[in-house]
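ZP: hey, is the NAP complex queued? I don't see it on the tracker
AM: it wasn't, my bad. submitting now with these inputs:
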Amino acid sequence: MADATRLDALIVGAGFAGLYMLHKLRGMGFAARALDAASGVGGTWYWNRYPGARCDVESMFYCYQFDDGLSQEWEWTERYPAQSEILRYANHVADRFDLWPDIQLNTRVASAVYDETGAVWRVETDTGETFLASYCIMATGCLSAANRPDFEGLDDFEGRVFHTGHWPHEPVDFTGRRVGVIGTGSSAVQAIPEIARQASHVTVFQRTATYVIPANNRPLDAGEQRDIKARYPELRAAARKTFGGFAVPTGRESALSVSEEECRETLGRAWNQGGIGFLNSYIDFGIDEQANVRAQAFVRDKIREIVDDPETAEKLLPRHTIGCKRLSLGDDYYATYNRPNVELVPLGEEGIGRIAVDGLTAAGREFRFDDLVLATGFDAMTGALSRIDIRGRSGMALTKAWEAGPRMYLGLMSSGFPNLFAITGPGSPSVLSNMMPTIEHHVEWIAGCIGFLRENDIREIEPHLEAQESWVEHGNEVASRTLRYTCSSWYLGANVPGKPRVFMPYIGGMPSYMEKCAAVAAAGYEGFELTPA
Ligand code: FAD
Ligand code: NAP
């Protein structure tokens, strides 16, 4: 134990959550360090370098708000910034706030074990180092643990295999190559048009057809950027009052309160405008089946309009509730299927068959290609945590405590795991929101909490089991009133075989969630057990 590094707080992850947590705690005088398995900062934007990767929250709002100087000085170039630009921003933040001395890269946390006697987390890494920290903060990301399905024969494939969430750093050239892509979620929707422009042939293996709304990406002009910056306080305050913290206009009426024609006209305007605001055109697409059917029909008609070959168009038509799975944004996705070098293969019940040295079998046919792209997503929300051997009181493993699904109070802490915090954990709005303000909210709450513990000489904080269970119950109850339960989404863990089906993010909306967190803190951390030193 002599060579263990002693810290006040150890942060796992140096994405946007870890960077701000580090900045905040250092500013409060705590000895803190952020570890990351990556060789750079930026998290999602470090790992997801696939062609076409960009965010789908507008750049002017997909950024930190905590520092005015930063907000005003950083210039975005496009409506939706590309991965490389967001990564530059993350690096700029690390430079600007001089975070580098307390960031340790190329270091994967393997285990975190709570020592009840010393009230300390003992954290071990794959580099053989040990850290002892009073607080351990998991900034490990909701979408950072790649889902690499166990396809039979995958290791036999002799060509190149890529996962969108672990894309190589050097440019990948697909020129003249035959490429197989498995998956048609948001990553695939962005990557497929780009790969198809280069490759000689692309075969897309589709398990579930996807609703894709145009992004309508475009350069940002200086005047527009200046105007938004001048109005940041007002615009950001307004965004915080919306369900997901998105700065997009939200309709106030039911889609069923207007004629079908009027509904289509409104959706047509939203479609042309582009962006995730499409489903905010009316208030009830997320809760009323009949209203939802109107939006579904609109998008299906658009697909039939865009795609030349009626058979291909038919295969591309999503049949599930729109918005049940995460909506995808993209430019050219459906039109890409008009290219002669792109083939769509809907997977039947049996899914992907055996992968061979030079292709795979699916839908009763054999396909040959040189490269295979797995756009198969993530073991979302719990994956990064369950890949660390986390043990709380009495050696209880987090994976055991969460056997039937994750259980957290406010998505921040879990009973039996004192002084262990998660940023955007299961039970918080996280992936249903614009994640930048959500991350900031969590970081500020956690920093406030740790400051309170110091001021009041409190050794441990941990949620009461009843408070946690009632929050989990409440989350399930709110989710069951929405249409999100009606499809096999990653929100429910349905994309990972064997994962319990539990709706993981909190779907009650940002405003009520933030109010609840503030009320809990104001009441002296109501629902938490505080153990004095
Ligand atoms: P991450 O950025 O995921 O960072 C977590 C870090 O923790 C990673 O660097 C990882 O290496 C590290 N880590 C994990 N486990 C360990 C370990 N055991 N040891 C050491 N290090 C570890 N959100 C939006 O709001 N809008 C968008 O448009 C949007 N687009 C997205 C596009 C893609 C392709 C993806 C995958 C996600 C997108 N998201 C988007 C969600 C995105 O993840 C968040 O916006 C945000 O970047 C999350 O930041 P984070 O710091 O919480 O997590
Ligand atoms: P995803 O949405 O989970 O999509 C994965 C795709 O792979 C789905 O089509 C899925 O089919 C398919 N798939 C998974 N396992 C399979 C299997 N065993 N056999 C065949 N097909 C399989 O993952 P993602 O596209 O990486 O996106 C994840 C999330 O990251 C998004 O929802 C979003 O939150 C974020 N993201 C955002 C953007 C953006 O534009 N800002 C871009 C990329 C990602 P099923 O649908 O049938 O499961």
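AM: back. The first strand starts at residue 5 and ends at 12.
ZP: great, adding it to the tracker
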